[in-house]
Every structure is written in C-alpha cells, then in structure tokens.
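Duplicate of #3305? Posting structure anyway:
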C-alpha cells in the first residue's frame, strides 16, 4: 500500500512541477541580461519563430535582433551585428535547470564570455562549475609540426582569443583558441596544431572530455 502511495505522489509531483522550457526562460529573464531587448521584443521573437516566421525585431538601439533557433532547451540569438548569444538549459535535478549563457563578440577576432545562472538568475561562481582550459591545452604536435615549432607559434600570440559555443543537441560547451592578429601563413600553421576542447555537463559542472 505504501508503495502505491509513493508512486502516486511521485506522479503528482512530476505533473505539478513541470520541467523548464527555454521559451519560458527567455520570456521571463531579467531585462538587464539582454539590455537592448524589451520583454515585448522577446515575446514577439517567440511568437514569430513558433509560427515559422523570421524572428526579427527592432531593439532599443534601433538595430535588429534575430532569434535564429529555439528548442526546448537551447536558444541562438543574434543580439546585434557583432554579438551572438547562445543559451542552454542544464539539468541539476528532476525539474530544475541552470542556464548557461555564452556571448560571443566579433571584433578583429571573435571572443566569448560564458556565465552560469541559477533559476533565480543568480550568477554561479565560475570555480563551482568549470575549470577552464589552460593556454597550452589547445596546442598539439603532429607528424608535420614538432614541439619546437609549436612553441614558436605559441609565442606569436600576444593576445589570446577564445571562442565558446553551446550545442542544440547535447550538453557540451566547446572552447576554441583562435589565431590572433598574425599573417595568413602563420595563422594557417597555427590551425594545423590547434584543437577545440569540449566539456560535458555532468549534472553539477562541466567536465573536460578526454
């Protein structure tokens, strides 16, 4: 009897506390997170994309913002011409998810800022959810490029630009070190020995994929 009562209570709880959906998170997020978009902008984008229309709205800077993709747990937003925002819901329990936000700014070279938020939009300290890759982790030798050449290429990077990306189909966060402001030939040499680094969400934090 107790077993059946427990099952009934579990079923009721699952219905009473539905899983978060990205459309609802996007609609309700604080205006300060995407400062140039109003709530009406966000609601319009959701309505457009769910009706198979171009989800393009005029933002507070009198420019255009485009919602490019929206799934149950992922969002891809071209906030401005030079800023792309990706969001991903990451489960931390049966019905609660953190929100990972990756902003990529395109200048001479793209660079990303990644943050994690609780359902109440409190920022989670980075040390609690990831150990970021070191500069040397992005580099690898191969049959045509030895350790000496890799070391020479590493020293050409005065500034280090790292792009981060979330995925619509899995719970991975990928970091890519981009060649800095070097000439085309050196950039091509770097691309041969630079590798992207993937991290996978394990329910508590992102863990490096070996």
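Output from current build:
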């Amino acid at each position: 009897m107790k077993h059946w009562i427990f099952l009934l209570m579990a079923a009721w709880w699952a219905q009473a506390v539905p899983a978060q959906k990205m459309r609802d998170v996007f609609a309700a997020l604080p205006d300060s997170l995407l400062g140039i978009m109003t709530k009406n902008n966000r609601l319009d984008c959701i309505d457009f994309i769910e009706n198979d229309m171009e989800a393009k709205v005029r933002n507070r800077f009198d420019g255009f913002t485009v919602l490019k993709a929206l799934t149950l747990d992922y969002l891809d937003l071209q906030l401005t011409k030079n800023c792309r925002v990706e969001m991903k819901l990451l489960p931390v329990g049966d019905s609660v998810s953190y929100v990972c936000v990756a902003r990529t700014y395109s200048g001479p070279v793209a660079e990303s800022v990644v943050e994690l938020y609780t359902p109440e939009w409190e920022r989670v300290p980075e040390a609690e959810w990831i150990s970021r890759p070191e500069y040397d982790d992005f580099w690898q030798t191969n049959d045509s490029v030895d350790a000496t050449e890799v070391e020479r290429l590493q020293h050409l990077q005065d500034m280090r630009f790292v792009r981060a990306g979330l995925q619509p189909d899995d719970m991975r966060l990928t970091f890519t070190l981009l060649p800095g402001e070097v000439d085309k030939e050196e950039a091509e040499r770097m691309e041969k020995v630079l590798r992207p680094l993937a991290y996978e969400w394990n329910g508590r934090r992102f863990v490096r994929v070996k």
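Confirmed duplicate; merging threads. The CA atoms of residues 65 and 102 lie 16 Å apart. Confidence is low (pLDDT under 50) at residues 1-18.
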